[in-house]
Structure formats: C-alpha cells, structure tokens
Amino acid sequence: MFYAFKSAEIIDVLSVSAINLILLVIYCLLIWVCIYKTSWIIDKLKLDKGFETENIELNFDSTKIISIAIIVIGGLLFIDNIPILLKDFFTFFQQKVLFKDYPKSGWIIFSFCKVIIGYLLMTNSFGIAKLIEKQK
Question: What pLDDT score does 31 carry?
Fold first, then answer.
C-alpha cells in the first residue's frame, strides 16, 4: 500500500485497494465458514467416516490440564523473550557503557525476569497446578 500511494498514480492505488478488498472478503468468508458452517466442512471432507465408535472418551484430571496450560504459557513467555534479551545484551556489549548509564537497562532486567518466570512456569507447572486446584 505504501508504494502504491507513494507513486501517486491512481491506477496503482485502485489496484492495490481492490486486491486488499478482495483478500479481506476472502478472509471473512473463510472465518465465517469455519465458525458457522462446520457441519458442511465435516460432510465435504468426510471427517466423520471410517470411525468404529461414535464417542471419544477423554478421561483427564483437571490438574494435568492446568499443568499443560501452564507449560504452554511458560514456554511462550520464555521463547518470546529470549531473542529480546539477547538483542539487548548484544547492543549493550557493543556500546561498552556502564550498566547504570545504559538507557535500556530497565528493559534488560524486565526481559530477564520474564525469561526466568517462563522457565520457572515450565519446570514447576505441576506444583502450580496443584496450588490452583487447591484454591479452587
């Protein structure tokens, strides 16, 4: 869109706008089909054929489900902040300044704390799940 508006030719702006509008309509239709027409998708893809039983029994303990959710949240927190922390450390060592004079020192500490919290959530998920279940 930026380059179309930068060139200032009306044909470029209209073509890019038309393509974006068509893509938006396609995305909205796909979301509508996936949410409201699931039975149609199941019938067309024949997802209900070939199973011996109709019922699927899931016997999970709620503590295990909470533990899995905590592991996923901790993993996302850990994986999301490792690159940020490493980038900030890299720029800090490139500039060779004192930590108190570095303007992003607070963000380094914040990213480090988020990495540690993510790691602790992943490694101690079962204990945290028991604590949540006990409070419930």
Answer: 95
| 48 vs 17: CA distance, rounded Å | 41
Structure tokens at 16: 């890019």
Q: Amino acid letter at 98?
A: L
- Concatenating the DSSP letter of every residue in 6-25 gives HHT-HHHHHHHHHHHHHHHH
Backbone dihedral region for residue 102 (phi beyond 0: left; psi -120 to 50: alpha; all else: beta): beta
Residue pLDDT, tens place only, 71-100: 999 999 999 999 999 998 888 878 776 666
Question: In whole angstroms, what is the distance from residue 1 CA to residue 9 CA?
Answer: 12
Q: How far apart are CA 90 and CA 2, in angstroms?
A: 32
CA 103 to chain centre: 29
Is residue 103 predicted with pLDDT exceeding 90? Answer: no
Cα 98 to Cα 121: distance, rounded to the nearest angstrom: 32
Tell me if 128 sits within 8 A of 121, measured CB to CB. Answer: yes
With contact defined as beta carbons under 8 Å apart, do 121 and 71 qualify? yes
pLDDT-derived band at 8, boundaries 50, 70, 90: low
